[in-house]
Amino acid sequence: MHGNVAQRLTRYAKSGVLRGAPFSGSGTKSMQLVRTPAGWRITGIAWSDDSGE
Questions:
Q1: DSSP output for 12-51
Q2: Rounded CA gap, 32 and 42, in Å?
């Protein structure tokens, strides 16, 4: 965090069934926030699945 701007990087894992086939994976999410007079607000979110290599 720097003043009124913050960023959070998070690892995630997922699993389930898609069209009848099991799947699993993992990746990284990035969230950007800005502090306003009304409180913290999300300004952007991006995520990327790991390539599996």
A1: EEEEEEETTEEEEEEEEEEEEEEEETTEEEEEEEEEEE--
A2: 6
pLDDT digits (tens, 9 = 90+) for 13-51: 999 999 999 999 999 999 999 999 999 999 999 999 998
Q: Is the pTM here over 0.70, yes or no?
A: no
Instruction: Write the Ramachandran bin of 38: left for phi over 0, alpha for psi from -120 to 50, otherwise beta.
Output: alpha
Residue 30: both structure tokens together: 């990035």
Q: Are 35 and 15 in contact (CB under 8 A)?
A: no
